[in-house]
């Protein structure tokens, strides 16, 4: 009698549906479905080890140490990523889980690694707001840095918020005037006054804080998140606090919401960002720019840029807004002065 015996399954049978629960998805050897992988939020990354927050059945959460599974290929995992884990997700000491899925990112904060590597990399995922911390004085504001931060926010889908520190040392008016045309929200704070204006803007949202050295960012984060233990005043941060890596760390605000502090991220080099990404963040200008000639780069040198007519025909505020927009577009192509 010819025909197949029970032992003569084809290779295909091996990778197709195994008999099992009705309605279950086909399981294949090559592409595991990860239906049973556990969801988590990456709260810190340190030399290839991720700290991932996973809900526990009791309504709290545990922090699980995890590595990236090889199947993710080149896809990096960053703080703020929503991921799925397999393996030991108990969070017990000396256990290690594997990250098998990185969920699509709602926003991305990108920058170049340093002045020798011109590739933009994602440094934080899924933050809603970019809080750009700058001192009114001591150190003097670095406007190129601020402009590039704003571009990074606009092009990555984050809402920027300027936080001007050391308000006890000077007036914020000059800085504020510079950003008036952009309609970017700004708040002045100082170490000795309350944070009543800032706090409601952070509640319930994920905000990533960036700032150059000495601006008072650690002082501020410590006040917002009392158990953050960020080192201040130039003291080394290594060994202080729960997370000791130099990468971005996610911290819970007592009133709800989260802060992502970025101790190792003090500059923003942009390389792959396109001026069109900046334009997309300015609804009013983008609508006008539809009348521009093809290939118009919307700079002051483009002779028929529709934005020039729009500014000339309206109140002076339009001119300020256009000038600010063009400054940001120029910042995209600037070589950063770190
Ligand atoms: N006058 C004044 N000084 C402040 C204020 N906030 C912070 N400082 C001082 O500014 C210095 C820098 O503060 P940090 O909080 O360490 O600044 P940082 O931005 O974290 O800088 P790094 O520690 O280099 O990362 C410290 O000497 C602080 O005491 C403020 O509101 N007013
Ligand atoms: Zn144009």
TrEMBL record:
Region: Disordered, residue numbers: 1-39
The keyword Membrane is assigned to this record: no
Subcellular location, record wording: Cytoplasm
Binding positions for GTP per the UniProt entry: 165-168, 211-219
Species whose genome carries this gene: Klenkia terrae
Keywords associated with the record: Cytoplasm, GTP-binding, Hydrolase, Metal-binding, Nucleotide-binding, Ribosome biogenesis, RNA-binding, rRNA-binding, Zinc
Family matches, as SUPFAM superfamilies: P-loop containing nucleoside triphosphate hydrolases
Residues that coordinate or bind Zn(2+): 292, 296, 298, 305
PROSITE patterns: ENGC_GTPASE (PS50936), G_CP (PS51721)
Function, in words: One of several proteins that assist in the late maturation steps of the functional core of the 30S ribosomal subunit. Helps release RbfA from mature subunits. May play a role in the assembly of ribosomal proteins into the subunit. Circularly permuted GTPase that catalyzes slow GTP hydrolysis, GTPase activity is stimulated by the 30S ribosomal subunit.
Coiled-coil intervals: none
CDD domains referenced in this protein's UniProt entry, alphabetically: YjeQ_EngC
Family, per entry: Belongs to the TRAFAC class YlqF/YawG GTPase family. RsgA subfamily.
Enzyme Commission number: 3.6.1.-
Basic residues composition bias: residue spans: 18-31
Pfam families on file: RsgA_GTPase
First-level EC class: hydrolase
Protein's recorded name: Small ribosomal subunit biogenesis GTPase RsgA
CP-type G domain residues: 106-268
Subunit structure: Monomer. Associates with 30S ribosomal subunit, binds 16S rRNA.
Xref: InterPro entries: G_CP_dom, P-loop_NTPase, Ribosome_biogen_GTPase_RsgA, RsgA_GTPase_dom
Cofactor or coenzyme needed: Zn(2+)
């Amino acid at each position: 009698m010819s025909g197949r015996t029970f032992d003569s399954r084809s290779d295909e049978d091996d990778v197709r549906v195994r008999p099992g629960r009705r309605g279950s998805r086909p399981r294949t050897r090559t592409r595991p479905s990860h239906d049973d992988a556990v969801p988590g939020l990456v709260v810190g990354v340190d030399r290839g080890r991720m700290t991932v927050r996973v809900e526990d059945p009791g309504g709290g959460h545990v922090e699980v140490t995890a590595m990236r599974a090889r199947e993710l290929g080149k896809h990096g995992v960053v703080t703020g990523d929503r991921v799925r884990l397999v393996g030991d997700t108990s969070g017990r000491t000396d256990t290690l889980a594997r990250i098998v899925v990185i969920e699509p990112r709602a926003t991305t904060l990108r920058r170049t690694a340093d002045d020798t590597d011109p590739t933009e990399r994602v440094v934080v995922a899924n933050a809603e707001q970019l809080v750009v911390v700058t001192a009114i004085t001591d150190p003097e504001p670095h406007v190129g840095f601020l402009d590039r931060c704003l571009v990074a926010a606009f092009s990555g889908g984050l809402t920027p918020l300027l936080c001007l520190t050391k308000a006890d040392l000077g007036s914020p008016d000059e800085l504020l005037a510079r950003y008036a045309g952009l309609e970017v929200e700004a708040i002045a704070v100082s170490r000795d006054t309350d944070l009543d204006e800032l706090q409601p803007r952070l509640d319930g949202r994920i905000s990533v804080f960036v700032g150059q050295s000495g601006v008072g960012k650690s002082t501020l984060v410590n006040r917002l998140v009392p158990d953050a233990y960020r080192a201040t005043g130039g003291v080394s941060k290594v060994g202080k606090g729960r997370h000791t890596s130099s990468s971005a760390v996610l911290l819970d605000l007592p009133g709800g919401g989260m802060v992502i502090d970025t101790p190792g991220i003090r500059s923003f080099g942009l390389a792959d960002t396109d001026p069109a990404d900046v334009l997309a963040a300015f609804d009013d200008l983008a609508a006008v720019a539809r009348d521009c000639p093809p290939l118009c780069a919307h700079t002051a040198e483009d002779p028929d840029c529709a934005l020039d007519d729009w500014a000339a025909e309206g109140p002076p505020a339009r001119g300020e807004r256009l000038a600010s927009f063009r400054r940001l577009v120029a910042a995209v192509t600037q070589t950063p002065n770190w």
